[in-house]
């Protein structure tokens, strides 16, 4: 019998702000019927080796990926790289620099929290990620939650960590064009992640997508974990207008967030070119 392919091309492990180790994540993906999984941790490839080893033993296809934080016109956009070569020197160097940037940003966030009378944040997030890990604002949200300064992750962002809030530390990430270059030169394709999450007006989204396409962007996430039918329709229209391939990815972070699950995604609309046709996937599992 021919097994249907189930793609999930965006998720996170403990190498960044996911709750599951790369091995646990691959096992869970398999359990939920995923046949091709891309691990796309924030600004790091540290989880890929473990994920690949587990995938080899579990008969699931692992696509090496990353989710890069980038700047364009002083706004932050997430670019997912799929089919990258994690050992490509420029990409490896970029992730080392991003880890330092994230560490320095974390110190600023911790200082700002200290001014609000909340101490111990830096030590807590450092312990949470370990030496190879990437400190994200989610780690600060976990800390604030664990110490009862907030009662939900969302409240941590609304009161402290979100843009313009008291513990927000603005960061100048790599330029979008540069990030796309790292991805493509390492053999991957660049995908604009969750295009509706940036809350852009129509004219800004048009400017963004033409710039993205012009500097080598190949795809856009048409289906993500939380999009409904109308949203998928809107993004599918962008994909067609800018001749971008469509990607599907849950952006899974944790089994605790029950409304987002690995591989549980709407199908890509039929008139959209699938991003996996641009990837060099091994034929058989
Ligand atoms: P960072 O890349 O360090 O700025 O952290 C961003 C991460 O924090 C995202 O990848 C999400 O996982 C999480 N995040 C961002 N905004 C929110 C929010 N409003 N509520 C919950 N989690 C959020
Ligand atoms: Mn995240
Ligand atoms: Mn993202
Ligand atoms: Mn993500």
Write the layout of secondary structure elements.
Elements: E1 7-8, H1 22-31, E2 36-39, H2 48-58, E3 61-72, E4 75-82, H3 89-115, H4 121-129, H5 137-146, H6 153-161, E5 174-175, H7 176-185, E6 189-192, H8 202-214, E7 219-224, H9 229-241, E8 245-249
Parallel strand pairs: 1-2, 2-3, 3-5, 6-7, 7-8
Antiparallel strand pairs: 3-4, 4-6
This protein binds adenosine monophosphate and manganese (II) ion (3 copies).
The site of adenosine monophosphate (AMP) has 10 residues, from helix 5 and helix 6.
Describe the structure in brief.
This protein is an alpha/beta fold and 285 residues long.
Radius of gyration: 18 Å
Low-confidence stretches: none
What share of residues are in beta strands? 15-25%
Largest sheet: 8 strands, mixed
User: From N to C, what is the helix and strand string?
Assistant: EHEHEEHHHHEHEHEHE
Spatial gap, N to C terminus: 15 Å
* Ligands and ions found: adenosine monophosphate, manganese (II) ion
Shape: globular
Give the class from helix and strand content and strand pairing: alpha/beta
Q: What number is the mean pLDDT?
A: 96
